[in-house]
Design a protein that fits this description.
With about 120 residues, the protein is an all-alpha fold. The protein is built from four helices and no strands.
Length: about 120
């Protein structure tokens, strides 16, 4: 079963919008990271300020990693739409449940294959 072209266009539009939102968020996080300030090397901040900056940096780094991974998922999903393979499980090749895709448009695996992968890891 293939998706109707109008449905694919809506999904594509949504993903492109998400892509822009995530890219914007990543740039915002980068500018908020206390470690991105070149002047930071020259300041003589108190140790509690240093600890707070370190903690903020670690949180921002984790969020950046998560958003970067999501951005990669979006890019891969847009490529699958272009190739005509959107909605097919990357593991077994069967159609991913449309309810799952409605909730998570970047889903790569059907529920069965996802569970099998989770058991392996």
């Amino acid at each position: 079963m293939k998706f109707p072209q109008n449905v694919l266009e809506e999904i594509k539009k949504h993903l492109i919008s998400e892509e822009k939102r995530v890219e914007s968020r990543l740039m915002s996080l980068e500018s908020q990271d206390p470690f991105s300030d070149p002047e930071r090397l020259n300041d003589n901040a108190a140790s509690d300020t240093e600890a707070s900056e370190e903690s903020n940096h670690e949180r921002m780094e984790a969020l950046q990693k998560e958003l970067t991974s999501y951005l990669e998922d979006i890019t891969q999903t847009l490529a699958r739409i272009k190739k005509g393979t959107y909605g097919l499980c990357l593991s077994c090749g069967k159609m991913i449940d449309t309810d799952r895709l409605a909730i998570k448009p970047v889903a790569k695996y059907c529920v069965r294959c996802l569970r099998l992968q989770e058991k392996r890891h």
